[in-house]
């Protein structure tokens, strides 16, 4: 962190770096969960949902880049060992052992809701104290909120499709 940034900040930088490393671990796990889930997914609307999940994966990877850059700017060291991701992450990585589209979407929805909490926590911690980290957290938070909305919409669309199919069978 630059001298002027230290002068105007009023927070525990070590605690912030820890929070950012936790977020970094969560982003890597979210990236992989989206990426592998999109590849394994089966069921209705798969062809429409898969490219969007891959886009979400890319956005999670971009979040990781932002977080790493900020950790370094703060004088910290980002997690360098993937073996530490699970122990640092407060969000669960859910192994996509059931490839059904709704199961994959529900897993990703839980991940997004955890990420929303994470970036709200970072935004609250840095608000008025570390403007750069605050802006980064809010930017990522907004994308996580969009991801949640996308997933909820797909789940809803699948439910409507299933209900309409049941009506046709009656």
Produce a short descriptive summary:
The chain is an all-alpha fold and 170 residues long.
Describe the structure.
With 170 residues, the chain is an all-alpha fold. Helix content is 77%, strand content 0%. The chain has six helices and no strands. Helix 2 packs antiparallel against helix 3, helix 2 runs antiparallel to helix 5 and helix 3 runs antiparallel to helix 6. The chain is elongated and about 70 Å long. The relative contact order is 0.16. The mean pLDDT is 94.
Summarize the topology:
Elements: H1 3-8, H2 13-40, H3 46-73, H4 85-88, H5 101-126, H6 131-169
List its traits:
170 residues; 0% strand; single chain
Biggest pleated sheet? none
- Given as residue ranges, the uncertain stretches (5+ residues, pLDDT < 50) are none
Q: Tally the helices: what do you get?
A: 6
Shape: elongated
The radius of gyration over CA amounts to: 18 Å
Mean pLDDT: 94
Please count the beta strands (DSSP E, at least 2 residues each): 0
Going by helix content, strand content and strand pairing, the class is mainly alpha
Range of strand content: under 5%
Span of the ends, CA to CA: 66 Å
Helix content: over 70%
Query: How do the helices and strands follow one another from N- to C-terminus?
Result: HHHHHH
